[in-house]
Amino acid sequence: MDTRYLQTFREVAKWQSFTRAAEVLGYAQSSVTTQIQNLENEFGVTLFERWGRKIRLTHAGELLLGYSEQLLAVLEEARVSLSEQSQMAGTLTIGTVESLAAFYLPPYLQRFRQEHPKMKVLLHPGICSELRQGVKDGTFDFVVVLDWLQTHPDLTCINLGEVELVVIAAPDHRLTQKQRVTATDFAGENWIFTEAGCSYRSMMEQVLRDADTPIETSLEFGSLEAIKQCVAYGLGIALVPRLAVMDEVEKGKLAVLPFSHPDIRVYKQLVYHKKKWMPQALRRFLDMLTDEAGSV
């Protein structure tokens, strides 16, 4: 039996009119009449009787109306529940850079998991260009990158705030004694870089080229922890987000050199596809990130 017949029956009983029920439901009156006849044939009873110019429920109709109300209420409850569950369960795939995965996102992930325990969250590290491409390809639901401000016709890019970059060195490094360090002071220094394609590595390399400061030798690691350890052991200097070294600097394991440059600036950016379907759980995570950024 088509449950729409019960909805039609309920409307006819409500208005005590086939014509009015048809108008409310957007059906032809003949369709309403046919549906009621199908119900009567299904149960082998008469549901309405004529009373002058009007109609009214028979005893059987009154009984069926009670059952119909219960059944339609249960179906509506199931529809709402299934809709909510489908949006509150599943997998959320997030792409981000290592520093944000380790030092920015964890509190949000914790809060999100507490609110949506049935959601599975997959966090994938990568470099910014690959992460953006992953959004375009549908690999990620969204990404949080650390890059210069960019726009794209297919992507929504939201600035979550600037992240300070610092040059770190071992505490006994010669440049820690200077009040101000410029790009030319890095002549002859060994650099320990993040992997190729990292936005702020490219910025630093360009600043050094503009200052005619050659990069004598360098090491390259995809891991921030490896970079920090090598710097602490005096193997070179590195450009990293301050948030990734605050603990080591406070404990005296690393030193921040007094260097800054206007061309070396990056921002946390939330990126997702403009055509991305937004289930409720995903919207909640995005709201957490943007609300926090807006309050700073």
List keywords for this structure.
296 residues, alpha/beta, Arc Repressor Mutant, subunit A, D-Maltodextrin-Binding Protein, domain 2, three-stranded antiparallel sheet, 45% helix, 22% strand, rod-shaped
Spans where pLDDT lies below 50 across 5 or more residues: none
CATH architecture of the largest domain: 3-Layer(aba) Sandwich
Largest sheet, strands/sense/barrel = 5 strands, mixed
Q: Please indicate the count of domains.
A: 3
Helicity level = 40-55%
Would you summarize the structure shown here?
With 296 residues, the chain is of the alpha/beta class.
Task: Please outline the helices and strands.
Blueprint: H1 3-15, H2 18-25, H3 29-43, E1 48-51, E2 54-57, H4 59-88, E3 90-96, H5 98-103, H6 106-115, E4 119-125, H7 128-137, E5 142-147, E6 155-163, E7 165-169, E8 190-194, H8 199-210, E9 217-221, H9 224-232, E10 238-241, H10 246-250, E11 255-256, E12 266-273, H11 280-295
Parallel strand pairs: 3-4, 3-5, 8-9
Antiparallel strand pairs: 1-2, 5-12, 6-12, 7-10, 7-11
Q: What would you note in describing this structure?
A:
With 296 residues, the protein is α/β, with parallel strands linked by helices. It folds into 3 domains: 85 residues, Arc Repressor Mutant, subunit A (Orthogonal Bundle); 99 residues, D-Maltodextrin-Binding Protein, domain 2; 104 residues, D-Maltodextrin-Binding Protein, domain 2. The chain contains 11 helices and 12 strands. The strands form 4 sheets. A 5-stranded mixed β-sheet has the order 4-3-5-12-6, with helices on both faces. The chain has a 3-stranded antiparallel β-sheet with strand order 10-7-11, with helices on both faces. It has a two-stranded antiparallel sheet with strand order 1-2. Helix 8 links the parallel strand 8 and strand 9. The relative contact order is 0.13.
